[in-house]
Amino acid sequence: MIYEDADATLLRLFECFMEAAPQLVLQLYIFALSHSASPDVYSWTELIQLVSMFSSLLSMAWALASYQRALRYSLEDKKNMTICGTAVQIIWRFFDIGARVLALGLFASVFPTYLFMVCGVHYMIMFTWIRFMGTEFCDNQCEEFLYNLVLGVLFIFCYFNPKDSPTRRRFTFYYVLSFLENSALMSLWFIYCPAHVTYKYPAMFLQFLSFVLGLVIMIIYYLLLHPTKNITVWDHWVKSR
């Protein structure tokens, strides 16, 4: 029964990112266009859109943390996540995904056609990377290939560890690439968005702050709240006390 729960949470995770994540980018795109027309006024429709985007973002963060929690419960050789660890992981993912969606949505409001090109190139890089990782989730290569295809979609928005092995270098590669992409997307939006847009500077600050907070909270999680707490930097610090 525990294994079935883990599989069910994985399916919900994939469904969330293949449906809710693109819809969230679309919602932000529509919001950016509609609010640009009346930058000093927030209508009830726009407020409802903001609440909807917040709940969608929270649901994606919840789906990621729920799967990690369910997966550890299903594996006898893995320590379980604490409630505090789960909560912190939800917050980490909330800011992490939020920064990415904000960059994609705002960029789309100025360059809607080029967004597909950006996501397509990113997807191909991620899919190729996942294939080189040599994941071993499915029983045969055909199913594994399809699994990797779906993972590539998820990797457009955030990093998901597809293989039980040290993740530090993979996290570093993904976040460096994401930072460069997000910075380029936000810079292009900032330069080419309509002159009357009043939230240019707040949006730039919010996107950067969200990305940094996601990184900081992720580091806190792995140093203090991860079930194994086996990070070398943390071990050295503890031994030096």
From TrEMBL:
Alphabetical GO CC annotations of the entry are: plasma membrane
Query: Would I find Cell membrane among this entry's keywords?
Result: yes
Alphabetical keyword list: Cell membrane, Membrane, Transmembrane, Transmembrane helix
Q: Where in the cell is it found?
A: Cell membrane; Membrane
Q: Pfam families this protein is in?
A: XK-related (PF09815)
Q: Does the keyword Cytoplasm apply?
A: no
Residue ranges spanning the membrane: these are 47-65, 101-125, 145-161, 173-192, 204-224
**Membrane topology annotation:** Multi-pass membrane protein
GO BP terms, alphabetized: apoptotic process involved in development; engulfment of apoptotic cell; phosphatidylserine exposure on apoptotic cell surface
Superkingdom of the organism of origin: Eukaryota
Q: What family does this chain come from, according to its entry?
A: Belongs to the XK family.
What's this protein's name?
XK-related protein
Q: Which organism is it from?
A: Stegodyphus mimosarum
